UniProtKB/TrEMBL annotation:
InterPro entries: Nitroreductase, Nitroreductase-like, Nitroreductase/BluB. It comes from Desulfonatronospira thiodismutans ASO3-1. The keyword Translocase does not apply. This is Nitroreductase. Pfam families: Nitroreductase. The keyword Flavoprotein applies. GO terms for molecular function: oxidoreductase activity. Keywords: Flavoprotein, FMN, Oxidoreductase. Residues 7-62, 66-148 form the Nitroreductase domain. It comes from the Bacteria.
Length: 169
């Protein structure tokens, strides 16, 4: 699958088959995450791989939009270590780029995924910090749920020429 095809056909998947994601697939996904661009090449990210069903069931208590987490074989918590930042505040962009790479890499491997947001909602940040025992300087950005898709997804065009401007508004 080429990059344009992956971008155009990837969709959020919320239903998964009862089939494990392999360690090799996880490594490939995380390698893709870690080649994302970051401000000053700081690479402030950390990732927690969650396969534990008990922990996954608690995720939906913190973030209702991650209700499918305990039905998937895997979740990846994307975090930023603020002590690694070169340019304060850019961690959100850095970790967002890494998260997008996770989604695209998973899709290219035949997996489905969905980005469930944590930051900037303080209650969610605190809930994930507690659930995953994060150090104080580590902020969770997103919890990505991953597994083999158990739903069909359509890929309609979202191209809107009226939202494109050249040179000026």
């Amino acid at each position: 699958m080429d990059v344009i095809e992956a971008i155009m056909n990837r969709r959020s998947i919320r239903k998964y088959k009862d089939k494990p994601v392999t360690d090799e697939q996880i490594k490939t996904i995380l390698e893709a995450a870690m080649v994302a661009p970051s401000a000053g090449n700081a690479q402030p990210w950390h990732f927690i791989i969650c396969r534990d069903k008990e922990t996954q069931s608690k995720v939906k208590e913190i973030n209702p939009y991650a209700a499918m987490a305990d039905k998937a074989p895997l979740g990846i918590l994307v975090c930023a270590d603020l002590s690694l930042e070169k340019f304060p505040g850019y961690w959100v962009q850095d970790c967002s780029a890494a998260t997008q790479n996770i989604l695209l890499a998973a899709h290219s491997l035949g997996l489905g995924s969905v980005w469930t947001g944590i930051h900037p909602i303080k209650e969610r940040e605190e809930g994930f910090q507690k659930l995953f025992n994060l150090p104080d300087q580590v902020i969770p950005l997103a919890y990505v749920v991953i597994g083999y898709p158990d739903q069909d997804h359509k890929t309609p065009s979202r191209y809107k020429p009226e939202r494109i401007h050249y040179d000026k508004w």
